Amino acid sequence: MPKEMDRQLVGDLVAAGVDFVTSVPCKQLAGVLEVLDETTSIRHVPCNKEDEGMGLCAGAYLGGGRPCIVMQNTALGVVVNALATLIQFYHIPLPMLISYRGEVGEKVACQVEMALHTNAILAQLHIPTYHFHHPDQAAEFPGILAHTQMCSKPTAILTDASFWGAAT
Amino acid sequence: MNRHDLLKDLIPVISDHLVVCNIGAPSQELAALDDRTSNFYMLGTMGLASSIGLGLALTQPKPVIAIDGDGSVLTNLGTLATIANNPAPNFILLIVDNGSYGSTGDQKTYTSAKTSLASVARACGCETVVEAEAEETRAAVADALRSKTMTIIVANCDPGNVDVPVITRNPVAIRDRFIQEVQR
Ligand SMILES: [Mg+2]
Questions:
Q1: What are phi and psi of A13, to 5 degrees?
Q2: How many domains does chain A fold into?
Q3: Residue A97, domain member (yes or no)
Q4: Complex ipTM
């Protein structure tokens, strides 16, 4: 059953003109994905791997669409080349709504390993990064989506366990 | 017939359409043969031409031909499942299968041995999969364009590249002129 927060984030995507979403699921994002599938103005094309998803998003952008990718932070271990040589090289605006696993509240020890590299990878790639730790911070999402289009860059929105735990 | 000759033969059929072309030798050969604003050249990122082509076909109505290679499809094999399950009638994926990694010196790929990408595509659920010899490829692409049915073409050709220059055009210039063609 989706939370109000899931509906709020997807509503912000719709309001920002996002019409194409690709995803690889994460437990924390299950509600977002459920709402996405109910949202007729967004075409949701699940991908098998997140670099494939970046290709789909690049194509959607070339076609006049406004894409977004929904994924887990572990995917940053997969997409560095696609980000650098496709999304950044061709200046494609791409918000990345990311489940930030491995932060306080995490139950799976292995998730901490990629959490340790998450900000370092994003900083190394000079990707504007926003961390939602408390539900109130989601109020920044519309501004981040507008900022992404303005600067034609990939941006990362990290949503951690505290954020999802406190979200209603 | 190698990839260069296959592309040369194909030009009358594809030149008026949106083409997404694979990294390395395929893009360089196409650019040297027939540089068009309707060609999107991949300058990096192995394996994503089919994904870019599908995203493009799903978001606008014009026909899209993605020219990919056997090595690149093998590196993004999941793409065939995504394509099968999100069919776009205006999408043609042309896999130029020369059984080798052409851009890196023609090291053999697994399609030169036991692996059939046409069988993989069918197993993934792609409904229209055509296997063609290099000489038959132009007709296969023309048929696919006429059919307005999503088609995967696996074109069997010889390995080998020709000596053509690297693409030096700015990526954002390639992007912008391509978007203008999409919107025209
Ligand atoms: Mg090859």
A1: -60, -45
A2: 1
A3: yes
A4: 0.98
